[in-house]
Design brief:
Layout: E1 9-10, E2 13-15, E3 22-24, E4 29-31, H1 36-67, H2 75-85, H3 87-115, H4 120-136, H5 150-158, E5 170-172
Antiparallel strand pairs: 1-2, 2-5, 3-4
Helix pairs in contact: 1-3, 2-3
């Protein structure tokens, strides 16, 4: 079975991605320096689409609630009537709300990581190094040497240096 992380062993070779961040099961690809901007736009477009569908679903439920002849003005009675009458639309609204929250969280995490010029893998490495130092009694802070400040981090992310034409992605591990 093929492992789902940033390297794939095949005939004693390793496929590596510069500044590897994570493996994304939704796009079936490792996310690194070369495709991180595209992945960020993918997340943003998914968030916009899910928000639009959520908005349309809420508008549909409000329209249907106005058509229902509910005698009580209490919001709980209206919601209960909607749930009874339109369970699928009500369930879709709840699911879309959860999806919007999850996409917003993913987008926020990636924007924060870009602002600090750090990858998901580096966060894990720095945390294990912090714990190891703490266990040894060393209070020296772990420094992210990639961080060049908010403005320069975004400049480096948005306008990366172009790789040389035909630059190989496969590197021998010997």
């Amino acid at each position: 079975k093929m492992p789902l992380f940033f390297f794939i062993f095949y005939l004693n070779k390793k496929l590596t991605h510069s500044r590897y961040d994570h493996y994304c099961p939704w796009v079936l690809s490792p996310i690194g320096e070369r495709n991180h901007l595209i992945f960020l736009f993918f997340l943003l477009s998914c968030l916009i689409a899910a928000s639009y569908y959520f908005y349309c679903d809420v508008c549909l439920l409000i329209y249907q609630a106005k058509k229902l002849k509910v005698t009580s003005e209490a919001i709980s009675d209206v919601l209960y009537s909607l749930l009874e009458t339109y369970p699928v639309a009500f369930g879709c609204t709840i699911c879309l709300f959860v999806v919007c929250l999850a996409l917003f969280a993913f987008l926020f995490i990636h924007l924060r990581n870009i602002s600090n010029n750090i990858t998901t893998i580096e966060i894990d490495k720095y945390e294990s190094l912090r714990q190891e130092r703490k266990k040894d009694g060393d209070d020296t802070p772990v420094v992210n040497f990639y961080d060049k400040g908010f403005k320069n981090n975004w400049k480096q992310f948005l306008f990366p240096k172009k790789p040389k034409q035909g630059e190989p992605m496969i590197i021998d591990i010997d």
